[in-house]
Each structure stands twice: as C-alpha cells, then as structure tokens.
Amino acid sequence: MLFNQTLHELLLLPIDDDQFCGVYLKSDKQKFRPLRNEFNVAQTSQRQLMQTPDPAEMDSLQDANVEHWRSLSSSLIEIFKTTSKDIELAGWLLAAQIVIDPALNGLREASQWLQALVEGHWDEVHPVLPDNKIKSESDKLKEINAFKVKGFVQLVGESEDSSLVYSPFLMLPLIGDLNYSRYLSVERKGGLPELRQQYQNVALGERAKVTSLMQNLVSIREAMRAVETHVTSVCKQYLLPQPGFQFVVSVITKILKAMEYISGLKSEEKRVIKADIQPETDEINHVDGGEKNMEVKEDSVTDYALLDGLPVNNQEFNRDDAFHQLRTLAESFRKVEPHSPVSYLLEKAIRWGYLSLPELMSELLLNQEDTIKQVFHLSALDENGDTNVIQPMHKKMLPLSGVDKSTSVQHNTRAVSTTSSHSVLNNVTAVSVEEVQEEPVSTSSSNSLW
C-alpha cells in the first residue's frame, strides 16, 4: 500500500485512549511473527534481485519484489492503525515505500509521519522497555531511552551499505532506466562524462519528473535530519551513543548529487540557498536594482554550476564528495581548455583513487612482476610472499582532442623543444579506461531488534 497524506494524518491519531501508540508488538507473538516473516520474505526477494539474475528472469523478479514489499506495507499500516506504532516497524515501512513507489511520494509522506511521531510522541512511541526489564530504578529513564534509541539502528545502519534503505535506493531509477547502482558502477570505472552525455537529454525531456524526484529527496533528507536532531538531544541528555543517521543522509545526498550532475538541474534547496545569500552579498546593488536581483530565474535551473556541489554541512564532506568535485573540475577544463591535458589527468586520478593498492601497483608497474612481487612482500600485502599479479585488462586509449603534437609546450614562459614536448604529450594525451566487471552488491540488513 502506498503511504499518502491521508494515512499520514490518520496514523497520528491515538490507537487507544490509554495507550496512544498501543502495545509493544514483540510481546504479542501471534501478531508479530507473521509480520516478521513478511519482512524476511521481502528482504530475500530484494537480495535475489541484486544478485545479477538472468535477464530473462529480471522482469518477473522485479514484479515479485514489488508485490512482497507492497504486502508488507499494507500489513504494517494496519498494525500502525490498530496495534502498535513502533520505530523499527516504521523503518520497514520506509524501505517498502522506496520499492513500491520509485517517485518517492510515499517515502516523503512516511518520513514526515515518522518525524511527527518522534517529535510529538517520543515517550509513547515504541519500543518502550517493559517494567520487568528495567535493571535500576535510579537509571530508569536512561534505560528506557536507550532501548527506544536502538529502534533506529536497523534503519540507519552502522555503515552506509548496512542501512535498511541502502539496497532499495541502489535499485532506484534516477533518470530513465539509469538506476543508482549503475551510476556507482560507472563512476568507479571513470565513465561519468559519457554517462552524462547519454542521459542529460533524457533528463531534460523528463524535466518535471526528475525535478519532482529531486525535491522529494530533499524533503526526505530534511525529515531524517529533524528526526536525528531530536534523537541526538535525547542521547546527549542521557549520555547515550547516537545512531548513525549520517549514513542515511549521506546516501540521499549522493543520489541528489548524481542526479544534479547527470541532468544539470538543481534541487529546490540549493535554489533557496542562493536566493537567501544573494541579498546579503549584493546588498549595494539592491539599492538601485530593487527586487530584481532577489529573483531566482527558472532558466538558471538548467545551468550546471561547476563549484556548487559542496555540502553546506562540512561534516558531510567525505572522500566521494572530494572525487565529485574533482570530476566537476575535470568537466570544466574539458569545456574551456579542450587542448589541455588537465581534465584527463584529473579523470585518471579519480579512477586511480577507486583502485585498491594491489590493482594500482599492477597498473603502474605493468609487466614488472618481479618488482611487484618485491613491493608486495616488503609491504606485507602478502604474508606468504606469494603474489597473484593482477593483469590489467584490455584498455582503450582516449585521444586528447584539439592538440597539435608539433606545438611546443610552454612552462614559466620558457619554451620546450618539439622533441621534449612530444614526450610529454605521450604521457598525458591518453587515459586508459579499464573495463572491470561489476561486482554484486551486498545487501545486508543487520542489527534488527527482533
């Protein structure tokens, strides 16, 4: 069942006059076990879909997966109406909404409902620690809140790829038939510029659909941050470890960046930020210009601002964000300086950055097995001294367009001879693109309270 605004409002009503959020469902095994079994079936279906099935079976597996999650969603909503409002069960609902509604309208409403539940009914929402489980009366409130906070662990995970929503997000279609899993695979291989060229026109042709999805992602991220803020305040009050909401927020942020890069469109949040900042930075101009400079032109939405991808919160800036910025710079150099090797060197640096050390050494020391073996042995990469040299696969050479090899290269205003220029160009005018087979994606979802 798709979650909507009507359900959002309905499920904020009390289940019972004496118990706003009902009972702790785990204590009612007859109602809990069938629900847990439905969840396990849905997760198994999702894993099968992620394990690179036979293309002939893909459609049937996708249909079955959607039906399993839709059934789970309907059962959960009935539980929320009549029996229990529970944080971990709400996490199951969020995952289900991603699968059954790729437009994410359901996830937006469900995440905002969870936000309202947490902010307005924290003491009542389950899991609530039963009285017979309390160990110390002096630390009663701490134990109760610690038990409740653990309800978020399965949803947010202990790492980005262990979050309950990570696997459904991987299969989320971003633009046309391009899903997030494929985007990540192409990114690791250094092929994003070509992917962008392939799908940018598709995005512009589906502008309303793409913009709506991006805005839903922004709203979902805002709701998760609001939940995080409330939970963090509780954890600080009772000196409790905080759940890793940053993992879910990070996944959403990366999906937004991927869509912005491919489509050239901007999310609403960034356009609002620009509108808020401009009156402060251009205050003098507004004296004569009136409100003209405060307007955010719709035409600017399609412009890809080259350095506009930095997160507002520096705590979210990580290794992938850095590579994203490097790729943006590479794209800029490719456009304004097509004769320059800078863009190709940046792309090579990004590709190398995603290689493991053995893979990188094998590429740098091509056909030097003895040297590789010695390096691996001295660096303890192989305890036994046996080295399986990774042979680079067939490479394609991408020529640097617009460069005349007879042209001398200048540096610090001193010309280099044509001969030395030619040797320099030999080192920078081609970028090897390694064709690596995509690995199956892990879809573990651990740390369940159940």
Summary, kept brief:
Helix content is about 60%, strand content about 5%. It is mainly α and about 450 residues long. The strands form three sheets. It has a two-stranded antiparallel ribbon. A two-stranded antiparallel sheet has the order 3-6. Strands 4-5 form a two-stranded antiparallel sheet.
Index terms:
19 helices, 6 strands, disordered C terminus, two-stranded antiparallel sheet, globular, 450 residues, single chain, mainly alpha
Task: Describe what this molecule looks like in 3D.
It is built from 19 helices and six strands. With 450 residues, the protein is mostly helical. Among the domains are: 5-263, no CATH class; 356-390, no CATH class. The strands form three sheets. It has a two-stranded antiparallel sheet. Strands 3-6 form a two-stranded antiparallel sheet. A two-stranded antiparallel ribbon has the order 4-5. Strand 1 and strand 2 (178-179) form a beta hairpin. The two termini are 23 Å apart.
